């Protein structure tokens, strides 16, 4: 079906409408062979709180942005190549239901659909697009992904030293390797993570020691374990859209 729609007038018109909704600040989306598979509003778990975002699934990219005027205007456009994407379902907890993780080497975050059916459709379509892309390119799925940030609200004290309490003066920071919420003294070091930034980024002392010793997988597994204990954990390592004040931390 994708091949049949690729060069159709209806598909070209739909993509053009999406382009226009993002305005001049958005990147051009119309290229030969690109097909708009579907679109919808998903709740994205951000550093401060969950927020509604408009998502567009194409056969090769995932695009999302802030909703300015529903179905008419969006900003803060983000484009994620699907070849680098892996997704994992998240268990329901409290008000956060029907969610899954979208993971890439540069950006990882949780999203939630309105219903279980909608979640299933999104995940199935994303997996199908990724599978088709990898099949055509002969590439293997990415086994590296950025940490999913633990939301600020999940940590009242530093997740590393377990002592420092967060206050307006003693601010929260995020380790770009494990995603933990940590205090300043526990995250004074910087390390170059090429998939995330061209400059060294903030990481906690624990991850710094593991990275320097070459035990990177141990660091990753530690973060994964924590996520299974706290399925509400969120964001990516590089600040997301306009969600996060003090997002450089």
Automatic annotation (TrEMBL):
Residues 152-212 form the FYVE-type domain. Residues 221-232 have a biased composition (Polar residues). The keyword Transport applies. One of its GO terms (cellular component) is endoplasmic reticulum. CDD domains: FYVE_PKHF2 (cd15755), PH_Phafin2-like (cd01218). GO terms for biological process: endosome organization; endosome to lysosome transport; protein transport. It comes from the Eukaryota. It is found in: Early endosome membrane; Endoplasmic reticulum. Residues 221-249 are annotated as: Disordered. The keyword Zinc-finger applies. InterPro entries: PH-like_dom_sf (IPR011993), PH_domain (IPR001849), PH_domain-containing_F (IPR051765), PH_Phafin (IPR037871), PLEKHF2_FYVE (IPR047966), Znf_FYVE (IPR000306), Znf_FYVE-rel (IPR017455), Znf_FYVE_PHD (IPR011011). GO terms for molecular function: phosphatidylinositol binding; zinc ion binding. May play a role in early endosome fusion upstream of RAB5, hence regulating receptor trafficking and fluid-phase transport. Enhances cellular sensitivity to TNF-induced apoptosis. This is Pleckstrin homology domain-containing family F member 2. It comes from Upupa epops (Eurasian hoopoe). The gene is Plekhf2.
């Amino acid at each position: 079906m994708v091949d049949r729609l690729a060069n159709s007038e209806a598909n070209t018109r739909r993509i053009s409408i999406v382009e226009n909704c993002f305005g001049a600040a958005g990147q051009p989306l119309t290229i030969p062979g690109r097909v708009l598979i579907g679109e919808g509003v998903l709740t994205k778990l951000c550093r401060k709180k969950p927020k509604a975002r408009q998502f567009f699934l194409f056969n090769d990219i995932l695009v999302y942005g802030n909703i300015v005027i529903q179905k008419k205007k969006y900003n803060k456009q983000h484009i994620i190549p699907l070849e680098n994407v892996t997704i994992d379902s998240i268990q329901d907890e409290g008000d956060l239901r029907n969610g899954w993780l979208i993971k890439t080497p540069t950006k990882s975050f949780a999203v939630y659909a309105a219903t279980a059916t909608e979640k299933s459709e999104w995940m199935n379509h994303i997996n199908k697009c990724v599978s088709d892309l990898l099949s055509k390119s002969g590439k293997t799925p990415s086994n590296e992904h950025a940490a999913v940030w633990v939301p600020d609200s999940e940590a009242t004290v530093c997740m590393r030293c377990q002592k420092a309490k967060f206050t307006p003066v003693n601010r929260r920071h995020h380790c770009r390797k494990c995603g933990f919420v940590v205090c300043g003294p526990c995250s004074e070091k910087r390390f170059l993570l090429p998939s995330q930034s061209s400059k060294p980024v903030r990481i906690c002392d624990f991850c710094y020691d593991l990275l320097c010793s070459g035990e990177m997988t141990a660091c990753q597994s530690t973060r994964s374990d924590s996520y299974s204990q706290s399925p509400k954990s969120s964001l990516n390592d590089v600040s997301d859209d306009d969600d996060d004040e003090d997002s450089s931390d």
